């Protein structure tokens, strides 16, 4: 029997979490869900072009687990592009190295400072919301 999932380490949540074709009415679209750990796998393997061993090490998972993650992620992105699906990036079993917050006053994206505080450059100290809450 399989044990519980280990949390995968993700650099930071994506700033954009929803994509859809503009020439298809929203009601006619099938949805595709890309998890945050799949998003990180694509970022490491395809954007940064790291090998699977280095990528797995950064996410603190095994190389075979990373390979399965990136294969699933690529398949979902391909379906989105070829079949014209709506893509949402959400959920997964992960922890963020650099969590993001959004200022409730102006909507700016904020990163935690080295001292652990979060403050908007425009509004000063303000109430913030998590952009991508941790795992589900």
Tell me what the structure shows.
Helices cover 30% and strands 19% of the residues. The protein contains three helices and eight strands. The mean pLDDT is 84. Helix 1 runs antiparallel to helix 2 and helix 1 (36-47) packs across helix 3 (63-83). The chain is of the alpha/beta class. It is flat. The chain has helices spanning 36-47, 52-59, 63-83; strands spanning 8-10, 18-19, 31-34, 86-89, 94-96, 100-103, 109-111, 128-130. The strands form three sheets. The chain has a three-stranded mixed sheet with strand order 2-4-3. Strands 7-6-8 form a three-stranded antiparallel sheet, with no helix packed on it. It starts with 7 loop residues before the first strand and ends in a 6-residue tail after the last strand.
């Amino acid at each position: 029997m399989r044990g519980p999932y280990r949390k995968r380490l993700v650099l930071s949540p994506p700033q954009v979490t929803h994509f859809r074709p503009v020439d298809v009415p929203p009601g006619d679209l099938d949805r595709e869900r890309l998890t945050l750990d799949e998003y990180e796998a694509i970022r490491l393997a395809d954007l940064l072009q790291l090998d699977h061993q280095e990528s797995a090490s950064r996410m603190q998972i095994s190389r075979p687990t990373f390979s399965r993650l990136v294969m699933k992620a690529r398949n979902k992105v391909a379906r989105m592009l070829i079949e014209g699906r709506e893509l949402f990036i959400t959920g997964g079993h992960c922890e963020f190295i650099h969590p993001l917050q959004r200022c409730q006053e102006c909507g700016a994206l904020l990163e935690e400072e080295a001292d652990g505080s979060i403050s908007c450059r425009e509004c000063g100290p303000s109430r913030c919301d998590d952009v991508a809450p941790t795992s589900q």
